[in-house]
Amino acid sequence: MKQHLNVSARQEAQHERNLFAAIGTLRTVDELRAFFRDLCTPAEIEAMADRWAVVESLARGLPYREIYRVTGVSITTIGRVARYLAEGNGGYTTAVQRLNG
């Protein structure tokens, strides 16, 4: 992560909370898409979409090699996503559970 010379850790944490609060105000997929297209570069969105495709594939029980074949995401990234799915903050799991209702 980059360092901000004039921003304290407390201010940085507040900026992050404000970002997530802004995201929380958005109500539809179209609103979220517009926000993220304004916020992120196409490459950043692609990277996040790739990671989400890996999460969905892992949740369906696909092996790493099959996920690589289908998504083109590197085995290293698949392993990293799998680790966060199993031992992360629970965000992936919450989203998968809510989508699968």
Overview of the molecule:
With 101 residues, the protein is an all-alpha fold. The chain folds into two domains: 39 residues, no CATH class; 61 residues, TrpR-like (Trp Operon Repressor, Chain A), CATH 1.10.1270.10. The protein has six helices and no strands. Helix 3 crosses helix 5. The relative contact order is 0.08.
Give a quick precis of the structure.
The protein has 101 residues and is mainly α.
**Helix/strand class:** mainly alpha
End-to-end distance = 35 Å
Question: How many strand units?
Answer: 0
Write down the CATH class of the largest domain.
Mainly Alpha
Q: Could you tell me the radius of gyration in angstroms?
A: 16 Å
| CATH homolog superfamily of the largest domain | TrpR-like
Helix tally equals 6
- What string, H for helix and E for strand, traces the elements in order? HHHHHH
Q: Can you tell me the CATH topology of the largest domain?
A: Trp Operon Repressor, Chain A
Characterize the biggest β-sheet.
Answer: none
Low-confidence stretches: none
The average pLDDT score comes to 95
What proportion of the residues is helical, as a percent range?
Answer: over 70%
Number of domains: 2
CATH architecture label name of the largest domain: Orthogonal Bundle
Strand residue percentage: under 5%
The backbone outline, from C-alpha atoms, is globular
